[in-house]
Specification:
- With 78 residues, the chain is mostly helical.
- Helix content is 55%, strand content 0%.
- It contains five helices and no strands.
- The longest helix is centred in the middle third of the chain and has 20 residues, at 22-41.
- The radius of gyration is 32 Å and the shape is rod-shaped.
- Keywords: Membrane, Transmembrane, Transmembrane helix.
- Residues 50-78 are annotated as: Disordered.
- The chain crosses the membrane at residues 20-43.
């Protein structure tokens, strides 16, 4: 045996106890991810809940306010 293996065999092993059983870490992670999934699921289809405010199904460029014709006048004067 080498000197290092003799020292390792003679040294005292330090065991740090976990604050809870190891399986509970997985259960805790599962509960947290399920909670976050429920929160994310509640935001589904939020854009369609307020479609009465924007009229029919809007596209990316139909969010102009009524009466704001400055953008449209530039295209019609050509």
């Amino acid at each position: 045996m080498s000197f290092a293996t003799i020292l390792m065999a003679e040294s005292e092993h330090v065991v740090n106890e976990l604050p809870m059983p190891s399986i509970m870490f997985g259960v805790l992670a599962l509960v947290v991810f399920l909670f976050l999934g429920v929160i994310t699921f509640t935001y589904r289809d939020v854009a369609n809940r307020h479609s009465h405010k924007t009229g029919s199904a809007p596209t990316a460029h139909t969010y102009d306010t009524p009466g704001d014709d400055t953008h449209h006048e530039a295209h019609t004067s050509e």
